[in-house]
Amino acid sequence: MLSISVVTPNFNHGRYLRAAIDSIVGQNYPKLEYVIVDGGSTDDSVEIIKSYADRLAWWVSEKDAGIADAINKGFAHTRGEIMAWLGADDMYVPWTFRIVSEIFEAFPDVDWIKGYHLDWSDKGALGIMYDLTPQHHRCNRFDYLLPGNYVFIQQESMFWRRRLWEKVGNKLSVDARWPLAFDTELFGRFFQHARLTHVETVLGGARVHRDRRCLRGWDDYQQQADAFRRDALAHCPARERRWAKAYQWLRRQRWIPTGVSRVILRALGNDLYRAAAYDVIRYDWWSGGQWQRRQEPVILRCR
Q1: Average of per-residue pLDDT across 201-215
Q2: Does residue 27 lie within any of the structural domains?
Q3: Is 7 buried (19+), middle (13-18) or exposed (0-12) by CB count in 10 A?
């Protein structure tokens, strides 16, 4: 069983905070290291946090420089082998940590995973399960780094190893160019060092409400994410830029059947074909109940 570190940043989200905390500590995972970083809330958040103080590795309530700064501050107080952050208005499912530990133990070379993603309503009712089809659930580095694709990785269902965090500098960016899209920037750095592995089970989800940060600033978020992608692509090696252009062209040819697109992609080179493939882990009941990993060909459909 691996140690897991989770950080929750919070600012005046007291009405949702207790549910988020319960979704974490309620799993009774024995090797959990849980940190809450409050940005000086003026609602009942601090009282709620204090009521869970004996279940927390560390907590603080003080002014910060934004969500990325709060998360960085929290992770600086952790040592767990597996890492994640969960927003104060997000939730995990009851089996999250057990499944995450199983997968990382079973596949020691896997550094980064994401699962299916849920949405809950403002009242906590289960709404939509996203990403049920492979073309929506999966993404490779080209899907993610090409401007205009709007492929997003839901952080509520994502976990990574500390060694990957250390490779990318041990912190989220606080660059003023993308204050909302700091997660996009981090995942872009992750893609430079590791393949994203898609786990076909639900691991967490978000609560949809009118005050949700990404909904209030959606247009700004998209513009910042695209600005980062253009910058990141410009700094990629020339061969990868050529691959990205070829990949993007194929994705836009809606008249070409998927099978033919794959043949064209393979003709452009086995290295490109393998780089664009998806790493998938699913639970195989027929093999005695084990997690199985395989690489599946890219789905070239324009999102």
Answers
A1: 77
A2: yes
A3: buried
